[in-house]
Amino acid sequence: MCNDGSDVRPDRHTALTPVIVLTTVGTTFDPHPLATQLVEKRLAACVNVIPQIHSVYRWQGKIENDSEQLLLIKTVQERLHELKRALFAAHPYEVPEFVVLRPEELSDAYRAWLVSSV
């Protein structure tokens, strides 16, 4: 969790729908400037960078095994188009991962913080 909800601004965005976007980048890519840009532009409330994952996937007819970094991007459904455009413009991969997850349940304080941050 990026925030405990204690400094939540008033909830002006009750109709916004929180989502989590997953994307991966290579280990040589520095994701911190991208994460900062997404938060500064209010396209994301928070970006978690998980620095070391191992991925097995098929690419151009071959099975690949690579170390990658996973980005968990907390945002709202209503900002997905802008987020996708900004992410793809800065993403190092030819085919960026863009997987959207819809949380089934969030605490009221966390939801209020998230939607007030985008």
Low-confidence sequence ranges: 4-11
Distance between the termini: 16 Å
Radius of gyration, CA atoms, in whole angstroms: 15 Å
> Biggest β-sheet, characterized?
4 strands, antiparallel
Number of domains: 1
Instruction: Round the mean pLDDT to the nearest integer and report it.
Output: 91
Helix content, binned percent = 10-25%
What is the level-2 CATH architecture name? 2-Layer Sandwich
Strand order across the largest sheet: 2-3-1-4
Q: Which structural class do you get from the secondary structure elements?
A: alpha+beta
| Named CATH topology | Alpha-Beta Plaits
At the first level of CATH, the class is Alpha Beta
Strand content: 25-35%
Let me know the number of strands: 4
Shape type: elongated
What's the tally of helices?
A: 3
- List the secondary-structure elements in sequence, H or E: EHEEHEH
